[in-house]
Specification:
Radius of gyration: 18 Å
Distance between the termini: 5 Å
Strand order of the largest sheet: 2-1-3-4
Structural class: alpha/beta
Shape: elongated
Largest sheet: 4 strands, parallel
Helix content: 40-55%
Order of helices and strands: EHEHEHEHEHEHEHEH
Length: about 240
């Protein structure tokens, strides 16, 4: 049996922990017959390297980051966890992805009554956690472009940490440019530190995190299947996988 290691950042927020657990449960329901184990790169235990080390004895291992963008945790922590085990592979981060655009639009509809972007003067700020990794900012900008293609209003980006503009700066810039209603689209998975930063950024409306939306589990399952396919085709692979 293949093990899917669902690796999230980790949070001290009880609500955030519960939401990530719901995402893992939805992922397991989407992939019957696949063993789903939890792991973290920070704050919580067990850490991803230890989970992978324990799981390799039971068969192939695919680490799926429950992270929306690439960055230090994918390129260092998760990469380190799999690099010494030939029958393991790391999937890419969840975003950018068209299905996540659909989730964002549903979250926007929840706070606007379905008219997000349709009022004169609307402006949406895609509010991401942020990272000092340039690839992370590029991934968020790509997600911004995908969302902007489906909204009839300007869409900009703001970050909680690691790069600029900050979310409050992006909200202020939107107002300075003439926005009458600024909507912060929370591009975070669960309640916690970064979700709190989005709420405190001064937007007129703020969406809920993406959370355990079925689209999130579908993206994670897709990342798993693609990564498993690469593993099975890799030279030297000898184990059967489910």
């Amino acid at each position: 049996m293949t093990t899917l290691v669902a690796c999230s950042h980790g949070t001290r927020s009880p609500d955030g922990r519960a939401e990530i657990a719901r995402i893992r449960a939805a992922l397991a329901a989407t992939l019957p017959g696949v063993r789903v184990r939890e792991a973290y790169v920070d704050v919580e235990q067990p850490e991803v390297a230890k989970v992978v080390e324990d799981a390799v004895a039971e068969g192939p291992v695919v680490v799926v980051p429950l992270l929306l963008s690439t960055g230090f945790h994918t390129s260092v922590d998760i990469a380190y966890a799999v690099q010494h085990h030939p029958d393991t592979v790391a999937a890419p981060a969840l975003g950018p992805h068209e299905l996540l655009v659909r989730v964002l639009r549903e979250r926007l509809a929840e706070v606007t009554g379905g008219d997000a972007g349709h009022r004169p003067g609307d402006h949406v700020v895609l509010a991401a956690a942020g990272s000092s990794d340039p690839d992370s900012a590029a991934a968020v900008r790509r997600m911004r472009d995908l969302l902007a293609a489906r909204l009839p209003c300007p869409v900009s980006t703001g970050y909680g940490a690691g790069c600029s503009p900050s979310i409050p700066q992006a909200v202020a810039a939107a107002r300075k440019a003439g926005a009458r209603r600024v909507i912060a689209a929370s591009y975070v998975l669960a309640p916690g530190h970064f979700a709190d930063l989005v709420r405190a950024a001064g937007a007129d409306l703020t969406t809920a995190p993406l959370g355990a939306h079925p689209g999130v589990a579908r993206v994670a399952a897709e990342r798993y299947r693609e990564a498993l396919g690469r593993l099975l085709l890799a030279p030297g692979h000898v184990r059967a996988a489910s």
